[in-house]
Amino acid sequence: MRPLVPINGFRNPQDRPNHSVIREQAVPVAGELLFQQMLSLERRRCERAGTRFALVLVDLYELNGTLSMEGAEEIVRALGASMRETDIAGWYRQSATIGIILTTLTETTRETLESVVIERIRKVLSLSLDPAQLRLIRISCHVFPSEDSGGTSDNKPDQMFYPNGRKKGFKDAATAALKKALDVSGSFAALLLLLPLFIIISALIKLTSPGPVFFKQKRIGQFGKEFKFLKFRSMYANSDPAIHQEYVRKLIDRKVGDPDGAYKIKDDPRVTRVGRFLRKSSLDELPQFINVLRGDMSLVGPRPPIPYEFEKYSLWHRRRVLEGKPGITGAWQVDGRSRTTFDEMVRMDLRYIRNQCFWLDIRILLKTPFAVLRGDGAY
Q1: Domain chopping of the chain, boundaries
Q2: pLDDT tens, position by position, 184-214
Q3: What is the pTM of this model?
Q4: What is the DSSP secondary-structure string of 81-139?
Q5: CATH fold of 13-161, please?
Q6: What does the alpha-carbon distance between residue 190 and residue 294 come to, in Å, rounded to a whole number?
Q7: 302: part of which helix (H) or strand (E)?
Q8: Residue 107: CA count within 13 A, CB half-sphere
Protein backbone atom coordinates (compact mmCIF):
# COMPACT_ATOMS: atom_id res chain seq x y z
CA MET A 1 0.00 0.00 0.00
CA ARG A 2 1.52 3.32 -1.05
CA PRO A 3 1.97 5.85 1.77
CA LEU A 4 0.23 9.22 1.63
CA VAL A 5 2.65 11.99 0.66
CA PRO A 6 3.01 14.75 3.31
CA ILE A 7 1.22 17.59 1.51
CA ASN A 8 -1.35 19.79 3.22
CA GLY A 9 -4.81 18.50 2.28
CA PHE A 10 -6.87 21.36 3.78
CA ARG A 11 -8.10 24.27 1.72
CA ASN A 12 -8.15 26.88 4.50
CA PRO A 13 -6.92 26.89 8.12
CA GLN A 14 -10.46 27.57 9.33
CA ASP A 15 -11.58 24.35 7.61
CA ARG A 16 -9.46 22.18 9.89
CA PRO A 17 -11.41 20.14 12.49
CA ASN A 18 -11.51 21.71 15.94
CA HIS A 19 -8.78 19.80 17.84
CA SER A 20 -9.97 20.92 21.27
CA VAL A 21 -13.47 19.63 20.63
CA ILE A 22 -12.09 16.34 19.30
CA ARG A 23 -9.84 15.89 22.34
CA GLU A 24 -12.71 16.69 24.72
CA GLN A 25 -14.73 13.91 23.14
CA ALA A 26 -11.78 11.52 23.69
CA VAL A 27 -11.89 10.13 20.17
CA PRO A 28 -8.89 7.80 19.72
CA VAL A 29 -7.16 7.12 16.42
CA ALA A 30 -6.77 3.35 16.52
CA GLY A 31 -3.92 1.91 14.47
CA GLU A 32 -4.52 -0.89 11.97
CA LEU A 33 -3.71 -3.75 14.34
CA LEU A 34 -5.84 -2.42 17.21
CA PHE A 35 -8.74 -1.54 14.91
CA GLN A 36 -8.73 -5.01 13.35
CA GLN A 37 -8.67 -6.57 16.80
CA MET A 38 -11.64 -4.38 17.79
CA LEU A 39 -13.41 -5.49 14.63
CA SER A 40 -12.72 -9.16 15.40
CA LEU A 41 -14.00 -8.77 18.96
CA GLU A 42 -17.18 -6.98 17.89
CA ARG A 43 -17.81 -9.73 15.34
CA ARG A 44 -17.42 -12.41 18.02
CA ARG A 45 -19.71 -10.51 20.39
CA CYS A 46 -22.45 -10.20 17.78
CA GLU A 47 -22.10 -13.86 16.83
CA ARG A 48 -22.71 -14.82 20.48
CA ALA A 49 -25.53 -12.35 21.06
CA GLY A 50 -27.22 -12.74 17.67
CA THR A 51 -27.09 -8.97 17.06
CA ARG A 52 -25.79 -6.82 14.22
CA PHE A 53 -23.18 -4.17 13.66
CA ALA A 54 -21.90 -2.26 10.66
CA LEU A 55 -18.48 -1.45 9.25
CA VAL A 56 -18.06 1.70 7.19
CA LEU A 57 -14.93 1.96 5.06
CA VAL A 58 -13.66 5.31 3.79
CA ASP A 59 -11.05 4.69 1.10
CA LEU A 60 -8.41 7.45 0.83
CA TYR A 61 -6.20 5.54 -1.61
CA GLU A 62 -6.97 7.76 -4.59
CA LEU A 63 -5.91 10.81 -2.57
CA ASN A 64 -2.31 9.62 -2.57
CA GLY A 65 -0.07 12.66 -3.12
CA THR A 66 -2.69 15.24 -2.14
CA LEU A 67 -3.22 14.60 1.58
CA SER A 68 -0.70 14.77 4.41
CA MET A 69 -0.41 12.15 7.14
CA GLU A 70 -1.43 14.80 9.67
CA GLY A 71 -4.45 15.68 7.54
CA ALA A 72 -5.44 12.02 7.31
CA GLU A 73 -5.22 11.60 11.10
CA GLU A 74 -7.37 14.72 11.57
CA ILE A 75 -9.98 13.28 9.25
CA VAL A 76 -10.09 10.08 11.32
CA ARG A 77 -10.59 12.11 14.49
CA ALA A 78 -13.25 14.29 12.90
CA LEU A 79 -15.16 11.24 11.66
CA GLY A 80 -14.90 9.62 15.08
CA ALA A 81 -16.17 12.78 16.76
CA SER A 82 -19.20 12.88 14.44
CA MET A 83 -20.29 9.35 15.40
CA ARG A 84 -21.89 8.01 18.57
CA GLU A 85 -19.87 7.36 21.72
CA THR A 86 -20.31 3.62 21.22
CA ASP A 87 -18.71 3.73 17.76
CA ILE A 88 -15.00 3.78 16.98
CA ALA A 89 -12.94 5.13 14.10
CA GLY A 90 -9.46 3.99 13.14
CA TRP A 91 -7.28 2.64 10.35
CA TYR A 92 -8.72 -0.42 8.64
CA ARG A 93 -5.70 -0.19 6.33
CA GLN A 94 -3.02 2.10 7.74
CA SER A 95 -2.93 5.50 6.00
CA ALA A 96 -5.15 4.24 3.18
CA THR A 97 -8.61 3.15 4.44
CA ILE A 98 -10.46 4.53 7.46
CA GLY A 99 -12.79 2.12 9.25
CA ILE A 100 -15.75 3.03 11.46
CA ILE A 101 -17.42 0.35 13.59
CA LEU A 102 -21.10 1.12 14.23
CA THR A 103 -22.27 -0.94 17.21
CA THR A 104 -25.71 -1.65 18.74
CA LEU A 105 -27.67 -1.34 15.50
CA THR A 106 -31.45 -1.24 15.52
CA GLU A 107 -33.59 -2.93 12.88
CA THR A 108 -32.61 -0.24 10.37
CA THR A 109 -32.05 -1.69 6.90
CA ARG A 110 -28.64 -1.52 5.26
CA GLU A 111 -29.97 0.86 2.60
CA THR A 112 -31.26 3.30 5.23
CA LEU A 113 -28.06 2.99 7.21
CA GLU A 114 -25.97 3.69 4.12
CA SER A 115 -27.90 6.80 3.17
CA VAL A 116 -27.75 8.32 6.66
CA VAL A 117 -24.17 7.41 7.58
CA ILE A 118 -22.58 8.08 4.21
CA GLU A 119 -24.31 11.48 4.00
CA ARG A 120 -22.94 12.36 7.44
CA ILE A 121 -19.44 11.22 6.50
CA ARG A 122 -19.43 13.23 3.28
CA LYS A 123 -20.57 16.28 5.21
CA VAL A 124 -17.66 15.91 7.64
CA LEU A 125 -15.20 15.31 4.80
CA SER A 126 -16.42 18.41 2.96
CA LEU A 127 -15.06 20.53 5.83
CA SER A 128 -11.54 19.22 5.21
CA LEU A 129 -11.34 18.47 1.49
CA ASP A 130 -12.00 20.40 -1.68
CA PRO A 131 -14.64 19.10 -4.15
CA ALA A 132 -12.02 17.46 -6.39
CA GLN A 133 -10.58 15.51 -3.45
CA LEU A 134 -14.04 14.63 -2.17
CA ARG A 135 -14.92 13.00 -5.50
CA LEU A 136 -11.95 10.66 -5.08
CA ILE A 137 -13.24 9.34 -1.73
CA ARG A 138 -14.98 5.98 -1.90
CA ILE A 139 -17.30 5.04 1.00
CA SER A 140 -18.80 1.59 1.53
CA CYS A 141 -21.08 0.22 4.25
CA HIS A 142 -21.19 -3.44 5.34
CA VAL A 143 -23.55 -5.01 7.87
CA PHE A 144 -22.66 -8.12 9.88
CA PRO A 145 -24.16 -10.62 9.55
CA SER A 146 -24.75 -9.71 5.90
CA GLU A 147 -28.35 -9.48 4.74
CA ASP A 148 -27.48 -10.56 1.21
CA SER A 149 -24.57 -10.98 -1.13
CA GLY A 150 -24.77 -7.38 -2.26
CA GLY A 151 -23.18 -4.33 -0.72
CA THR A 152 -21.49 -1.15 -1.85
CA SER A 153 -18.09 -2.75 -2.42
CA ASP A 154 -16.70 -5.07 -5.06
CA ASN A 155 -15.48 -7.32 -2.25
CA LYS A 156 -17.82 -9.82 -0.66
CA PRO A 157 -19.31 -8.18 2.48
CA ASP A 158 -18.36 -11.02 4.81
CA GLN A 159 -14.70 -10.69 3.88
CA MET A 160 -14.64 -7.15 5.28
CA PHE A 161 -15.00 -8.55 8.80
CA TYR A 162 -12.03 -10.92 8.61
CA PRO A 163 -9.05 -8.66 7.88
CA ASN A 164 -5.53 -10.01 8.00
CA GLY A 165 -3.64 -9.03 11.14
CA ARG A 166 -0.18 -7.52 11.02
CA LYS A 167 2.78 -9.66 12.03
CA LYS A 168 4.53 -8.76 15.27
CA GLY A 169 7.96 -7.18 15.17
CA PHE A 170 11.07 -8.75 16.69
CA LYS A 171 10.74 -6.75 19.93
CA ASP A 172 7.14 -7.82 20.41
CA ALA A 173 8.00 -11.44 19.62
CA ALA A 174 10.91 -11.43 22.09
CA THR A 175 8.73 -9.93 24.85
CA ALA A 176 6.02 -12.52 24.15
CA ALA A 177 8.57 -15.36 24.28
CA LEU A 178 9.96 -14.17 27.63
CA LYS A 179 6.44 -13.79 29.02
CA LYS A 180 5.50 -17.28 27.85
CA ALA A 181 8.62 -18.78 29.44
CA LEU A 182 7.86 -16.98 32.72
CA ASP A 183 4.24 -18.19 32.63
CA VAL A 184 5.09 -21.84 32.04
CA SER A 185 7.99 -22.08 34.50
CA GLY A 186 6.30 -19.94 37.16
CA SER A 187 2.93 -21.73 37.11
CA PHE A 188 4.53 -25.18 37.02
CA ALA A 189 6.75 -24.36 40.01
CA ALA A 190 3.81 -22.85 41.91
CA LEU A 191 1.64 -25.94 41.39
CA LEU A 192 4.42 -28.21 42.67
CA LEU A 193 5.14 -26.08 45.75
CA LEU A 194 1.48 -25.50 46.59
CA LEU A 195 0.30 -29.09 46.13
CA PRO A 196 -0.03 -29.70 49.92
CA LEU A 197 -2.07 -26.49 50.22
CA PHE A 198 -4.32 -27.64 47.35
CA ILE A 199 -5.03 -30.87 49.27
CA ILE A 200 -5.84 -29.02 52.52
CA ILE A 201 -8.13 -26.47 50.85
CA SER A 202 -9.91 -29.19 48.88
CA ALA A 203 -10.59 -31.14 52.09
CA LEU A 204 -11.93 -28.04 53.88
CA ILE A 205 -14.30 -27.25 51.02
CA LYS A 206 -15.65 -30.80 50.86
CA LEU A 207 -16.08 -31.06 54.64
CA THR A 208 -17.94 -27.76 55.10
CA SER A 209 -20.38 -27.63 52.17
CA PRO A 210 -21.72 -30.03 49.54
CA GLY A 211 -20.59 -29.56 45.99
CA PRO A 212 -17.45 -29.69 43.85
CA VAL A 213 -14.04 -28.45 44.98
CA PHE A 214 -13.46 -26.33 41.90
CA PHE A 215 -15.69 -23.57 40.58
CA LYS A 216 -15.67 -23.47 36.77
CA GLN A 217 -16.94 -20.45 34.91
CA LYS A 218 -16.91 -19.15 31.34
CA ARG A 219 -14.66 -16.12 30.96
CA ILE A 220 -13.64 -13.96 28.02
CA GLY A 221 -9.97 -14.23 27.12
CA GLN A 222 -7.80 -12.34 24.67
CA PHE A 223 -9.52 -11.45 21.37
CA GLY A 224 -12.88 -12.53 22.80
CA LYS A 225 -12.03 -16.23 23.07
CA GLU A 226 -14.01 -18.01 25.80
CA PHE A 227 -12.35 -20.43 28.22
CA LYS A 228 -13.13 -22.32 31.45
CA PHE A 229 -11.90 -20.24 34.39
CA LEU A 230 -10.94 -22.20 37.54
CA LYS A 231 -11.18 -21.20 41.20
CA PHE A 232 -11.62 -23.00 44.48
CA ARG A 233 -15.35 -22.94 45.21
CA SER A 234 -16.08 -20.23 47.76
CA MET A 235 -19.88 -20.13 47.35
CA TYR A 236 -22.66 -22.58 48.04
CA ALA A 237 -23.26 -24.91 45.09
CA ASN A 238 -25.77 -23.72 42.46
CA SER A 239 -25.82 -20.14 43.76
CA ASP A 240 -27.90 -17.69 41.75
CA PRO A 241 -25.63 -15.33 39.74
CA ALA A 242 -28.36 -12.68 39.48
CA ILE A 243 -27.05 -10.72 42.48
CA HIS A 244 -23.61 -10.44 40.89
CA GLN A 245 -25.01 -9.58 37.46
CA GLU A 246 -26.93 -6.67 38.98
CA TYR A 247 -23.88 -5.56 40.96
CA VAL A 248 -21.66 -5.62 37.86
CA ARG A 249 -24.19 -3.59 35.91
CA LYS A 250 -24.28 -0.91 38.61
CA LEU A 251 -20.52 -0.97 39.02
CA ILE A 252 -19.85 -0.36 35.34
CA ASP A 253 -22.58 2.31 35.21
CA ARG A 254 -20.96 3.92 38.30
CA LYS A 255 -24.15 3.48 40.34
CA VAL A 256 -22.56 1.49 43.18
CA GLY A 257 -22.97 3.33 46.46
CA ASP A 258 -19.77 1.99 48.02
CA PRO A 259 -17.28 4.90 48.24
CA ASP A 260 -14.44 2.40 47.76
CA GLY A 261 -15.84 1.35 44.41
CA ALA A 262 -15.12 -2.25 45.46
CA TYR A 263 -15.05 -4.72 42.60
CA LYS A 264 -16.38 -7.55 44.79
CA ILE A 265 -19.65 -7.69 46.72
CA LYS A 266 -19.27 -7.12 50.45
CA ASP A 267 -21.06 -9.61 52.71
CA ASP A 268 -22.16 -11.74 49.78
CA PRO A 269 -24.79 -14.17 51.21
CA ARG A 270 -23.78 -16.84 48.69
CA VAL A 271 -20.28 -17.21 50.18
CA THR A 272 -19.54 -20.02 52.64
CA ARG A 273 -17.54 -19.60 55.88
CA VAL A 274 -14.49 -21.26 54.36
CA GLY A 275 -15.11 -19.29 51.19
CA ARG A 276 -14.83 -15.97 53.04
CA PHE A 277 -11.39 -16.94 54.27
CA LEU A 278 -10.36 -18.13 50.82
CA ARG A 279 -11.49 -14.87 49.24
CA LYS A 280 -9.93 -12.66 51.90
CA SER A 281 -6.60 -14.44 51.49
CA SER A 282 -7.00 -14.82 47.68
CA LEU A 283 -6.35 -18.57 48.06
CA ASP A 284 -9.43 -19.24 45.93
CA GLU A 285 -7.40 -17.96 42.95
CA LEU A 286 -4.70 -20.67 43.12
CA PRO A 287 -6.27 -23.08 40.56
CA GLN A 288 -5.73 -20.41 37.90
CA PHE A 289 -2.13 -21.61 37.66
CA ILE A 290 -3.72 -24.50 35.73
CA ASN A 291 -5.30 -21.96 33.37
CA VAL A 292 -1.84 -20.45 32.83
CA LEU A 293 -0.35 -23.85 31.95
CA ARG A 294 -3.20 -24.43 29.51
CA GLY A 295 -2.35 -21.14 27.80
CA ASP A 296 -5.69 -19.47 28.57
CA MET A 297 -4.13 -16.98 30.98
CA SER A 298 -0.83 -15.38 31.94
CA LEU A 299 0.68 -14.82 35.39
CA VAL A 300 0.30 -11.06 34.88
CA GLY A 301 -2.44 -9.36 32.92
CA PRO A 302 -5.99 -7.94 33.07
CA ARG A 303 -8.63 -9.97 34.88
CA PRO A 304 -10.82 -11.95 32.45
CA PRO A 305 -14.43 -10.72 32.43
CA ILE A 306 -17.55 -12.87 32.71
CA PRO A 307 -19.64 -12.83 29.48
CA TYR A 308 -22.49 -10.87 31.10
CA GLU A 309 -19.94 -8.37 32.40
CA PHE A 310 -18.37 -8.03 28.96
CA GLU A 311 -21.79 -7.31 27.42
CA LYS A 312 -21.98 -4.15 29.58
CA TYR A 313 -18.58 -2.86 28.49
CA SER A 314 -18.22 0.36 26.55
CA LEU A 315 -16.07 0.02 23.45
CA TRP A 316 -13.00 1.46 25.16
CA HIS A 317 -13.42 -1.00 28.05
CA ARG A 318 -13.09 -3.89 25.58
CA ARG A 319 -9.48 -2.94 24.85
CA ARG A 320 -8.50 -4.66 28.10
CA VAL A 321 -9.45 -8.06 26.60
CA LEU A 322 -8.00 -7.24 23.19
CA GLU A 323 -4.51 -6.02 23.90
CA GLY A 324 -3.37 -8.46 26.57
CA LYS A 325 -3.86 -12.04 27.71
CA PRO A 326 -5.78 -12.18 31.02
CA GLY A 327 -3.72 -12.76 34.15
CA ILE A 328 -3.89 -14.05 37.73
CA THR A 329 -2.48 -10.80 39.06
CA GLY A 330 -2.01 -7.38 37.54
CA ALA A 331 -1.45 -3.69 38.07
CA TRP A 332 -4.81 -2.97 39.66
CA GLN A 333 -4.58 -5.96 42.00
CA VAL A 334 -1.27 -4.81 43.51
CA ASP A 335 -1.80 -1.04 43.34
CA GLY A 336 -5.55 -0.65 43.61
CA ARG A 337 -6.66 -4.12 44.73
CA SER A 338 -10.48 -4.14 44.64
CA ARG A 339 -10.69 -0.66 46.16
CA THR A 340 -10.92 1.33 42.93
CA THR A 341 -13.56 2.33 40.42
CA PHE A 342 -14.21 0.16 37.41
CA ASP A 343 -13.06 2.81 34.93
CA GLU A 344 -9.82 3.34 36.86
CA MET A 345 -9.25 -0.41 36.92
CA VAL A 346 -9.55 -0.48 33.12
CA ARG A 347 -7.16 2.47 32.78
CA MET A 348 -4.61 0.72 34.99
CA ASP A 349 -4.88 -2.41 32.83
CA LEU A 350 -4.39 -0.37 29.66
CA ARG A 351 -1.36 1.43 31.13
CA TYR A 352 0.15 -1.95 32.00
CA ILE A 353 -0.46 -3.27 28.48
CA ARG A 354 1.07 -0.16 26.92
CA ASN A 355 4.21 -0.41 29.08
CA GLN A 356 4.37 -4.20 29.26
CA CYS A 357 7.82 -5.75 29.55
CA PHE A 358 9.47 -8.68 31.32
CA TRP A 359 10.73 -6.61 34.26
CA LEU A 360 7.36 -4.97 34.81
CA ASP A 361 5.84 -8.46 35.15
CA ILE A 362 8.54 -9.39 37.67
CA ARG A 363 7.84 -6.23 39.69
CA ILE A 364 4.09 -6.95 39.79
CA LEU A 365 4.69 -10.58 40.76
CA LEU A 366 6.99 -9.52 43.62
CA LYS A 367 4.42 -6.99 44.89
CA THR A 368 1.51 -9.47 44.72
CA PRO A 369 2.22 -11.35 48.00
CA PHE A 370 2.29 -8.06 49.95
CA ALA A 371 -1.02 -6.99 48.38
CA VAL A 372 -2.52 -10.37 49.34
CA LEU A 373 -1.24 -10.12 52.94
CA ARG A 374 -2.71 -6.63 53.29
CA GLY A 375 -6.03 -7.95 52.05
CA ASP A 376 -7.20 -4.48 51.05
CA GLY A 377 -10.43 -4.61 49.09
CA ALA A 378 -10.70 -8.41 49.21
CA TYR A 379 -14.08 -9.83 50.31
Answers
A1: 13-161, 170-374
A2: 999 999 999 999 999 999 999 999 999 999 9
A3: 0.61
A4: HHS-TT-EEEEEETTTEEEEEE-S--S--HHHHHHHHHHHHHHHHHTTS-HHHHHH-EE
A5: Alpha-Beta Plaits (3.30.70)
A6: 14
A7: none
A8: 0
